[in-house]
């Protein structure tokens, strides 16, 4: 490969790197030659992308399928109010190109899936996982292991952060642990700490995503000791930090003694969701639900949101948070129609899948779009 | 007494207590004592077969108990156990 060269403007821009003895022009060259894929442009992606762009990573892939929403801005400092409604990858590209015009931003405005992941990841040297759900975590990990790429991992939940460098091959060719060595299986839906009870302190992904960016830069440049075989833990609530060891597990189905996974699998199913198709559970539109409310047909309404959400507003449903559904199953009737709702329809769907699978219910209907859609429709009328 | 550090996602079952002192001889006893004191946390720590759930890692100091003596790992009075859950992000 031809050695990377720099213009006068670039040398000036990166001068604070160039004068660090351990980093110098060699480190900067490696950054410029590097291709990094950032999966997710959310809370973690925001600091990650900005620091990688500012540092001069030559090619940055930005992957997200979502558009910018007002509720993102509390933590996703990559975006401005003007970006609301824009595809995240395009808003990110605009911002990052404004920050550093000497790098290349490649956008992937898609949902990462078992069908497209290998094809996308193969063009990059390294992946930084800033996603927000278990199926994608395992997908990113497996794609990286199958393709031999380093996966710089960070994850957040409310006040907790985790960082590690997975599947890193050192100079001796020894491959470090990956996500499946640490967590062989995800929590089943409905059990803490599944993502049903969301929420995150806005500044937390800023802190954790910055640590993640630091590890990306270290892996690329070879400066320092990357966080391989170690998991960094941050508890922002009590300001406690710990670093614990992560070991390779010989039972790892990807690269343990007897590998059983040789291609990408169905990660929704692996994480206990019976794939993501709408027809999986029966549903009612808001209009159909309003019709039901106005009819004589008896039905039960169940709200599976959290206490604080129920307290803000509710439509008189029986309140059973998703995490308590199994315990409170005896409150759910089976002799009439039961409509289950949450904020937007995802958690209620999980509740229905769980109840159908574990308890054999067949009278459950998901309120499409949840209470958000309900209020929208009622307000419009 | 060994100290068990409770991760934030599980603190709603421990009256927001971030640590639990367990008078226990082994890791399993300590986790069981925690579940005994806070019954609501039990199903989040143990599966149907009373095994510690596989999406939780238990650490003694900075070491994974799986490379020690697993659940049978002996505890000393000043040991610190951490329960480390898989976390994925902040959405629903």
Structure characterization notes:
- The complex is a heterodimer of chains A (381) and B (92).
- Chain A has helices at 8-13, 15-18, 24-33, 45-55, 88-99, 117-121, 134-147, 179-182, 203-221, 267-270, 286-294, 307-312, 346-359, 370-380; strands at 35-39, 59-63, 104-108, 126-129, 150-157, 160-166, 230-235, 240-245, 283-284, 299-303, 318-319, 337-341, 364-367.
- By secondary structure, chain A is of the alpha/beta class.
- In chain A, helix 12 (307-312) links the parallel strand 10 (299-303) and strand 11 (318-319).
- By secondary structure, chain B is an alpha+beta fold.
- Chain B has 2 helices and 5 strands, in the order ββααβββ.
- Chain B has helices at 27-37, 42-45; strands at residues 2-5, 19-22, 56-60, 63-64, 80-85.
- Chain B is globular, with a radius of gyration of 12 Å.
- The A-B interface holds A 42-43, 131-134, 137, 155-160, 162, 182-187, 191-193, 195-200, 231, 233, 235, 237-238, 242-247, 249, 326, 342-344, 346-347 and B 7-10, 12-13, 18, 43-44, 53-55, 57, 59, 62-64, 66-67, 82, 84-92.
């Amino acid at each position: 490969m031809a050695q990377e060269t720099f213009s006068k403007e670039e040398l000036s821009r990166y001068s604070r790197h160039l004068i660090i003895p351990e980093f110098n022009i060699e480190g900067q060259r490696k950054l410029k030659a590097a291709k990094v894929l950032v999966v997710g442009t959310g809370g973690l992606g925001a600091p990650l992308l900005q620091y990688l762009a500012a540092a001069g990573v030559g090619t940055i892939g930005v992957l997200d399928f979502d558009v910018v929403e007002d509720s993102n801005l509390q933590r996703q400092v990559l975006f401005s109010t003007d970006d609301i409604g824009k595809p995240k990858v395009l808003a990110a590209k605009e911002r990052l190109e404004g920050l550093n015009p000497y790098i290349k931003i490649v956008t992937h405005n898609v949902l990462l899936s078992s069908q497209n992941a290998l094809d996308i990841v193969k063009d990059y040297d390294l992946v930084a996982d800033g996603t927000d759900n278990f199926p994608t975590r395992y997908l990113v990990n497996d794609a990286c292991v199958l393709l031999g790429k380093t996966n710089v991992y960070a994850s957040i939940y409310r006040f907790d952060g985790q960082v590690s460098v997975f599947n890193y091959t050192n100079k001796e060719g020894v491959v470090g642990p990956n996500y499946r060595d640490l967590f062989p299986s995800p929590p089943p839906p409905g059990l803490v700490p599944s993502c049903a009870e969301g929420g995150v302190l806005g500044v937390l992904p800023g802190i954790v995503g910055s640590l993640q960016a630091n590890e990306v830069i270290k892996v690329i440049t070879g400066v320092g000791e990357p966080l391989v075989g170690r998991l960094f833990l941050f508890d922002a609530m009590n300001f406690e930090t710990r670093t614990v060891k992560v070991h390779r597990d010989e039972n790892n189905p990807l690269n343990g003694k007897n590998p059983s996974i040789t291609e990408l699998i169905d990660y929704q199913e692996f994480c206990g969701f019976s794939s993501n198709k709408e027809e999986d559970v029966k549903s009612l539109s808001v209009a159909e639900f309003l019709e039901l409310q106005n009819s004589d047909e008896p039905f039960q309404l169940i709200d599976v949101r959290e206490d604080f959400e129920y307290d803000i507003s509710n439509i008189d449903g029986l309140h059973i948070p998703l995490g308590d559904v199994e315990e409170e199953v005896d409150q759910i009737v089976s002799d009439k129609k039961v409509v289950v709702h949450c904020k937007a329809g995802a958690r209620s769907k999980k509740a229905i899948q769980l109840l159908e699978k574990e308890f054999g219910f067949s009278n459950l209907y998901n309120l499409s779009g949840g209470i958000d859609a309900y209020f929208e429709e009622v307000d419009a009328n | 007494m060994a100290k068990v550090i409770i991760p934030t996602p599980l603190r709603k079952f421990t009256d927001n207590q971030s640590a639990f002192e367990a008078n226990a001889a082994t890791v399993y006893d300590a986790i069981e004592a925690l579940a005994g004191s806070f019954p609501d946390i039990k199903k989040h720590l143990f599966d149907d077969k009373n095994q510690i759930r596989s999406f939780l890692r238990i650490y003694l100091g900075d070491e994974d108990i799986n490379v020690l003596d697993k659940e049978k790992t002996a505890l000393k009075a000043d040991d610190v156990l951490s329960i480390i859950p898989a976390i994925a992000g902040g959405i629903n």
